[in-house]
Amino acid sequence: MSLLPETMLKRKKIYVACLSGLGLLVLLSLYKTGSVKTTSSGAQDCFFCDFAHHKQGPPPILEVETNEFVIFKDKYPAAKYHYLAIPKEHLDSFSVLNKSHVGLVRRMESGMKEFLKSKKVDPEKAIIGFHIPPFISVKHLHLHAIYPPSDMGLGNKISFMSSYWFKNSNDALRELEKREL
Ligand SMILES: [Zn+2]
Ligand SMILES: [Zn+2]
């Protein structure tokens, strides 16, 4: 009996085990990111909407507030600096956006970058972007900004790496420009 097929089978098994381990890590870290509670019925019982509109607490401290968006610290920071920018208007996720949202996303991104600078963080060295459904922890659009990446554990590194589950803001804006209205 040749050993070859068995070796190949073993390799395949290891490969599958690695892949499922990776998937599990992504899901676990997403669960810890953002918040535990997810809403299924949109704006009605969306606690991010409550945060943005100063409704029932305990709300996080709003570090930045404009007429369009707010910025606050992530409840489960992946690194020393981990902030979220969310629009005041309820939008489920990056998937529901179109070309008309380019301006909003640009202003959220530049607002976040200015805020990072005020914290003496170089925005070019931070991880800034969106999770893509179904890999979202809260069903209200939120832009992550994380620094330094070296603080992040393996699970978060995977969760926030440029991939089909996480889009950095440059790629996100490029994609929005191409979407229909
Ligand atoms: Zn909302
Ligand atoms: Zn996220």
Automatic annotation (TrEMBL):
<protein>
    <recommendedName>
        <fullName>Adenosine 5'-monophosphoramidase HINT3</fullName>
    </recommendedName>
</protein>
<dbReference type="GO" id="GO:0016787">
    <property type="term" value="F:hydrolase activity"/>
</dbReference>
<dbReference type="InterPro" id="IPR036265">
    <property type="entry name" value="HIT-like_sf"/>
</dbReference>
<keyword id="KW-0378">Hydrolase</keyword>
<feature type="short sequence motif" description="Histidine triad motif">
    <location>
        <begin position="140"/>
        <end position="144"/>
    </location>
</feature>
<feature type="domain" description="HIT">
    <location>
        <begin position="47"/>
        <end position="160"/>
    </location>
</feature>
<dbReference type="GO" id="GO:0000166">
    <property type="term" value="F:nucleotide binding"/>
</dbReference>
<comment type="similarity">
    <text>Belongs to the HINT family.</text>
</comment>
<dbReference type="InterPro" id="IPR011146">
    <property type="entry name" value="HIT-like"/>
</dbReference>
<dbReference type="Pfam" id="PF11969">
    <property type="entry name" value="DcpS_C"/>
</dbReference>
<keyword id="KW-0547">Nucleotide-binding</keyword>
